[in-house]
Amino acid sequence: MSAKDLTQPVQTQYLANAQLVxxxxxxxxxxxxxxxxxxxxxxxxxxxxxxxxxxxxxLAPGLIELHxxxxxxxxxxxxxxxxxxxxxxxxxxxxxxxCGITTVFxxxxxxxxxxxxxxxYAKYARQxxxxxxxxxxxxxxxxxxxxxxxxxxxxxxxxxxxxxxGPQDRVGIVSIMDHTPGQRQFTDxxxxxxxxxxxxxxxxxxxxxxxxxxxxxxxxxGEKHERAxxxxxxxxxAVLASHDDTTAAQVAVSAGHGVAMAEFPTTVAxxxxxxxxxxxxxxxxPNLVRGGSHSGNVAAxxxxxxxxxxxxxxxxxxxxLLMGAVMLSDIWGDMARGMATVTAAPARATGLADRGxxxxxxxxxxxxxxxxxxxxxxxxTWVLGRRVA
Length: 389
What we know:
Blueprint: H1 3-7, E1 13-22, E2 25-34, E3 37-43, E4 52-53, E5 58-61, E6 63-68, H2 70-75, H3 85-98, E7 101-110, E8 113-115, E9 118-121, H4 125-137, E10 144-152, H5 158-162, E11 171-177, H6 189-200, H7 204-236, E12 239-243, H8 248-257, E13 261-263, H9 268-277, E14 280-284, H10 285-290, H11 300-305, E15 311-313, H12 320-332, H13 335-340, H14 344-349, E16 366-372, E17 375-383, E18 386-387
Parallel strand pairs: 1-4, 1-5, 6-7, 7-10, 10-11, 11-12, 12-13, 13-14, 14-15
Antiparallel strand pairs: 1-2, 2-3, 5-16, 8-9, 16-17, 17-18
Helix pairs in contact: 8-9
């Protein structure tokens, strides 16, 4: 398949006899697709001559992923085992398409950390970001890619790395992250120890030294880096997000910065404060699927049951996005509402007015799936009316 094949929309198609997942309802019907966009929506289960029979399976807008670390897994499939970036990006892209994801904001950490001869987190965002954008521009990727810069305020090089990006770089989201130990995601220091010792192989004394280093680093640069991140998001024209808000006071600071989305609030109190401030709450689908947070924070299901969950992210398991949406559908008793957390809601939050819903004139970015009990199975994925998986 050539780059032209992947970027040129196909002509008229008629996808019939589907359970169409619309905003607010699911109904039996058909989509007419012309030049990569939805040209008409019909009702009923008829399958006219020349139509493609969806066999009564679900047909929904393509999933929109706002925060995934999946590319990092392809770039470093084992600790200290680096993989060529081009093949890694292609594999990541194909995996997302196979999971029904048609738009992704690839999360890239900006802000590196080194101590003497030891590099805890190396700089990589500009190089990988350029490679993603180049492949997207050449039309070799199956789905639509944008960048999500995860700005680590507890780092040494954040401002310099942010300065390497500009409005031309398709940066759609900038999130303010602070992984200083003892607060936010890692309020429980033992959870942080499990994560860092497991990832870097530190001894306990090395871990304690690392924590002291991070706390001192954040005391020196944290506030300066936070201000720089807010300014960078404005410069890029990107949506600003917070990360791991734990208290109402932290949410108030986020609101003051103009944050529009809160990624993974760690408590019910923080999620409620986000709701009160009009900040959309994003929770990880793996948290929902696994039945709780791996860091010991609030369960996504608890926020769903309290109507404090707006958007799902696959985080580190792409297949979790659709599965999580179906689980929300079960919790709420409403398939349309559950699916909106991975389609309409993320589209609205990031200003993508051309996708996320099945409406005439919108992009024909679609996913067809069926349920095996309560487990969804992706059957086909389309981007601009062309099947990509």
